[in-house]
Amino acid sequence: MTISLSAIIQVIILYLAIYAILKRAKGSRFGQALMGVGIIAAIAFALTFFFEFEVLSRIIQSILLYLALSTVVIFQPEIRRSLAELGAFGFLERPKYNTDGSAKPELVVQTIMALSEMKMGALIAFERGISLRSYEEEGVIINAVFSQQLVRTIFTPPLPLHDGGVTMRNGRIAAAHCIFPVSNNPNLIASGMRHRAAVGLSEETDALVIVVSEETGGISVAHNGKLFRYTGDQRESSIQRWINRAMQTELKKSTLGERILDWWQNRGKNT
Predict the structure, then answer these.
(1) 195 touches 222 (CB < 8 A)
(2) How many CB atoms lie within 10 A of CB 132?
(3) SS3 193
(4) pTM of the model
(5) Domain spans in the chain, listed from the N-terminal domain onward
(6) pLDDT tens, 210-259?
(7) 105-265, superfamily in CATH?
(8) Judging by DSSP bridges, how do beta strands 226-230 and 219-223 pair with one another?
C-alpha cells in the first residue's frame, strides 16, 4: 500500500485542526460539551462497528445532529470569539506601545496599585488582537494620554464616568463609561458586576481586563474567560507580568508566516 504526499498533508492538517480545537476548548464549558459529544459519537461508532446495532446507532446519530446544532446556539460567545481571533490572527496589526503618548507598563501598574490602596473600584480593558471599538460605542470616547490623575478622576464616584469600564488602546485611554457583556459563568454568582463584566469581555475577546474591588481593594485579572484574584505581597509582581504581556513594547511580526511561527514557538508557554 502506497501513501501519497497529498494524504500525508491532509492528515497533518487534520491533526493540527483537532489539536487547535482541543487546546482552545480545554478547561472551558465548550470543551466539556465537546467531550460529551465525542463520547456519544464513540458509542455510536462502537454499536455500529462491533455489534451492528443499526437502529440504535441511527437514533444516536440523529441525537448527535441535534446536539451539534444546539452547541452552536449555546456556545455562541466561544465560537464568536474563536472566529474573531482567526480573523485578526494574520491580517490585522495588534496594538504597538512604542508611539508618542503611550503609557509605560510600570506607570499602569503603579496606578492600579494606587486604586487598590484607596479601595476605588475600577474596570480597565486592554485591547489586543480583537478590537474593542464595538464596546466603546455606548461609552464616551476620550483618546487621552494615560495618567494616574485622569484614571482616578474617571473612577471617582459619583462622577458621570465612574460606572462602566475603561478601554486601553496603543497605551492610551481610548474610552470610558463602556458597557461590557456580563458572564453567565455559575462560578461567579458571588462576584460583583465588575468581575462578571470583566470575565464576560474576556470570554468574547482576547482582551486582558483588570478589576479593582471597591469593597476589599483586591485586584483581579480576567483573561480567556478565567478570573485570577491576587492579594498580599505578591500581587504587584503578578499584575506587572500581566501588564507586560498586555502591553508588549516590541513590534509585532507583520507577515502571516512569521505570526504562525511565533504562535508555534509559544504555544506551550503558560501565563
Answers:
(1) yes
(2) 23
(3) helix
(4) 0.65
(5) 5-74, 105-265
(6) 999 999 899 999 998 889 999 877 889 999 999 998 887 544 444 445 45
(7) DNA integrity scanning protein, DisA, N-terminal domain (3.40.1700.10)
(8) antiparallel
